[in-house]
Design a protein that fits this description.
The complex is a heterodimer of chains A (534) and B (203).
Chain A (H helix, E strand, L loop, with lengths): L3 H4 L3 E5 L3 H13 L4 E5 L2 H10 L4 E5 L8 H10 L8 E6 L1 H9 L7 E4 L4 H17 L1 H8 L3 H11 L7 H14 L3 H14 L3 H13 L3 H14 L4 H13 L3 H14 L4 H13 L3 H14 L8 H13 L3 H14 L3 H17 L3 H11 L9 H13 L3 H14 L4 H13 L4 H27 L3 H14 L4 H18 L3 H17 L5 H13 L1
Parallel strand pairs in A: 1-2, 1-3, 3-4, 4-5
Helix pairs in contact in A: 7-8, 8-9, 9-10, 9-11, 10-11, 11-12, 12-13, 13-14, 14-15, 15-16, 15-17, 16-17, 17-18, 17-19, 18-19, 19-20, 19-21, 21-22, 21-23, 22-24, 23-24, 24-25, 24-26, 25-26, 26-27, 26-28
Chain B lengths: L2 H22 L5 H24 L8 E3 L1 H15 L4 E5 L7 E3 L1 H18 L3 E9 L2 E8 L6 H6 L14 H12 L1 E2 L2 E2 L1 E6 L3 E7 L1
Parallel strand pairs in B: 2-4
Antiparallel strand pairs in B: 1-3, 4-5, 5-9, 6-7, 8-9
Classes of the chains: A mainly alpha (534), B alpha+beta (203).
């Protein structure tokens, strides 16, 4: 066979719970010339394999027995960046499941193989997919690095040819524009695609772009139309629910997600949103039942997160079922042993202890949760601690923590929306939450601008003091860290070498390179440092 | 239709598919594989018809390269009917088209299967643009469609003929019709021209 040489060096992972199907796929793949094959029966084994090898192709059956299905697994892989965008993920489905997979297209697989399929069809498809993989290699690599500027530039190189990948290139570019906070350009591109054909993902993309542009009504209206036209398009429900929740209409948001859940039980992300909304709209019973059911279904599955137990525990504590809330925390501790999880669970425990009337234990648990370095906390831990602070009446601590999270991650929409959730769940009005987030953002922008202005007017030492204090406090805020490094470099270039200051400058510079190797400010910093060497 | 019936059809279909895969691994059972595979396909179609009649079938059009699409279809049937020559003509096809890959593939698979069984030695697959519609064509060099079928165009599911029960044709028509754009909707056309010609028009 002509394609044998194409396949021999490709690493393939097959995930199928049916023994018969596994051995058939093994034989088919071997006959087609694949030599580097791993075949597993469940996603736990799959993840173990993936931790040690990088696969070119993953073939996954949609139906994997009782627990987590292929689509939920794919969502888990994508949201946690566990596979490269360049890895070909093929979902093997039966015809009934096909629509569920297609319609969930938020995390679409690269291709679907509908059972039954022949070896010939299988090979021909893989050949096309590998051709595609090669075409998108650079774009996928920049996507993996979340280097959106380069993703856009690479797409722009290929778009003018209007070849067979044109629409897909538009899709990737539009997503990159959204990530780069260019919603107007993204909206224009989505409209360009929609002029060719009203494709579902482009309509939803446009709705998202409109939402980010602040045109909330238009965004909601479009999302409602998508849901009406394609009731199976689950991502549209999730978006609409999110929009409604962020505009304060939590009841309506909950209704939308409930409707989505009736059509498809859905992914853990939806369950999380839904049960969080249920708790904050005063329906902890609903949250309890939805989350319990999901955790039961995904028992032992890696798609569970420690925060799922936090949500369940909170739902129980809110109902006064303090003992159950505590036992959920104890259960979670058996499965989640890493440090970040301990922090989340300590915060969760403090809420449950409070509900049980054990104020001292509640305080102690919260103190444990707050003992670590807040700069390295994942967003889930930050929100859990803030939640607990509010529950224990420590509103100042909660606000301080949330303010810090926003200022430390100025570009991160996820963090902003999570902070918003925590604030409104704690009883703040939407306008109040919006104002607090906006004020936190403005405060750090002012600090940055003050520093830059001082540097420009020659007050270098003042600029250094201001920006370095902020940079040490907010090490993830690249704008601050970058400007801090720059003003030190300017100072050194002007006043000559100072080993201590140079070390500080290089420390900031290294931190930037680790996070964003193409950060624009780097060139300026380096050019100042080069003057120093002369 | 009872859910239980659908579940049983589904199970039997999967068993047939597994049988087909196993037969496919043997060098001496290509014909048997083809039979089992076709039987599994027929059950797949039936499940889709059930979904269609319950108005549960929806199309998800996205961009598809017709060249790749037909190449995959051809590769599959070259394996099932190794004696036939299958040509692809996409000279007048657009760079990219929009339709539901999986559903249209299923519809064309059926047309392809019938063509392969009736063909003398050659099948031609073609894609082109005509009057703002995409035309997907399966033409064989066999005896052509019987008159009764030419009139029916897959209107009813049970026009039993030497080319099958008509279920596949019925489904193909429904799948074509589900593709709609600006007031236009898809259709299929059957004709005879030195053999049977199946055409699917998609807006």
């Amino acid at each position: 066979m002509a394609n044998i040489s194409k396949f021999t060096d490709k690493w393939v992972l097959v995930i199928d719970d049916m023994e018969g199907m596994r051995s058939q796929l093994r034989m088919s793949l071997t006959n087609s010339g694949f030599a580097k094959l791993h075949i597993v029966g469940n996603i736990r084994e799959a993840l173990e394999r993936m931790a040690n090898s990088r696969y070119d192709v993953i073939l996954c059956d949609y139906s994997l027995g009782e627990g987590t299905d292929g689509q939920q697994f794919l969502e888990h892989l994508r949201t946690n960046d566990l596979i490269s965008r360049n890895t070909i993920f093929v979902m093997i489905t039966a015809e009934q499941a096909y629509e569920k997979v297609v319609a969930a297209s938020e995390c679409a697989p690269d291709d679907y193989l509908l059972k039954p399929f022949t070896a010939g069809q299988f090979n021909a498809r893989l050949e096309k997919l590998l051709e595609r993989q090669q075409f998108f290699a650079t774009i996928d690599k920049t996507t993996d690095a979340k280097d959106w500027t380069r993703v856009i530039a690479e797409c722009d190189k290929s778009l003018p040819a209007r070849n067979k990948y044109f629409i897909e290139l538009c899709k990737i570019k539009a997503a990159a524009l959204m990530h780069s906070n260019r919603p107007q350009d993204a909206a224009d591109l989505y409209r360009e695609v929609l002029a060719l054909r009203p494709i579902g993902w482009a309509r939803l993309g446009l709705a998202r772009a409109l939402g980010q542009l602040g045109k909330k009504d238009e965004a909601q209206q479009l999302a409602r139309e998508i849901v009406a036209d394609s009731p199976q398009f689950m991502a549209a429900y999730d978006f609409l629910g999110g929009q409604l929740a962020s505009s304060g209409d939590k009841e309506a948001a909950l209704n939308v997600l409930q409707k989505a859940r009736e059509i498809s039980p859905g992914t853990m992300n939806r369950i999380r949103e839904l049960s969080t909304l249920a708790v904050s709209t005063g329906q902890p019973e609903l949250a309890e039942s939805v989350m319990r059911q999901a955790l039961q279904k995904h028992k032992y599955s890696p798609v569970r997160q420690v925060n799922d137990y936090a949500i369940l525990s909170k739902a129980l504590a809110t109902q006064g079922k303090a003992d159950e809330a505590l036992s959920v925390v104890a259960d979670a501790r058996k499965d989640f042993r890493d440090e970040d999880s301990q922090i989340v669970l300590a915060a969760t425990e403090s809420v449950a202890q409070r509900a049980a009337g054990n104020d001292e234990l509640a305080e102690a648990a919260l103190a444990r949760a707050m003992a670590g370095d807040i700069n390295i906390l994942p967003v889930g831990a930050v929100t859990a601690i803030a939640d607990a602070c509010f529950a224990l009446g420590k509103e100042d601590d909660a606000n301080k923590l949330l303010r810090h999270a926003i200022q430390n991650n100025p570009e991160d929409e996820t963090i902003r929306s999570k902070v918003h959730d925590v604030l409104t769940a704690a009883g703040k009005e939407v306008t109040e939450a919006d104002a607090m987030i906006e004020e936190s953002t403005q405060e750090i922008i002012r600090t940055n601008n003050d520093g830059v202005r001082k540097a420009e007017s020659g007050q270098l030492q003042e600029a250094i003091d201001l920006l370095c204090e902020a940079a040490d406090r907010l090490p993830n805020n690249l704008q601050i860290v970058g400007n801090a490094a720059l003003v030190i470099a300017l100072h050194l270039a002007k006043n000559g070498d100072d080993p201590k200051m140079l070390a500080q400058c290089l420390r900031y510079r290294d931190a930037i390179i680790r996070k964003s190797p193409d950060y624009p400010r780097l060139a300026q910093i380096d050019s100042q440092l080069r003057q120093l060497k002369k | 239709m009872n859910d239980l019936y659908a579940a049983v059809i589904h199970d039997v279909k999967n068993q047939l598919a597994e049988l087909a895969l196993r037969l496919g691994e043997r060098a001496d059972a290509q014909q048997e594989m083809s039979i089992a595979m076709n039987a599994a396909r027929r059950l797949s179609e039936m499940l889709l018809v059930i979904r269609q009649e319950a108005e549960l079938l929806s199309v998800n059009p996205d961009s598809v390269d017709t060249g790749d699409f037909l190449a995959i279809l051809a590769a599959e049937y070259r394996e099932l009917f190794p004696a036939l020559a299958i040509d692809i003509d996409t000279e007048h096809a657009p760079a990219f088209a929009f339709f539901d890959d999986a559903l249209v593939r299923m519809a064309l698979s059926n047309a392809m299967h019938n063509a392969c069984r009736s063909a003398h030695s050659r099948i031609k697959l073609a894609a082109r643009e005509q009057d703002k519609m995409l035309v997907l064509e399966v033409a064989d060099d066999g005896p052509g469609f019987p008159d009764g079928m030419l009139k029916n165009d897959g209107d009813t599911p049970a026009s039993v003929s030497n080319r099958g029960t008509g279920l596949g044709l019925y489904l193909a028509r429904k799948i074509a019709e589900l593709h709609k754009l600006e007031g236009r909707c898809g259709r299929i056309e059957l004709s005879n021209d030195k053999g049977a010609v199946f055409r699917m028009f998609l807006p």
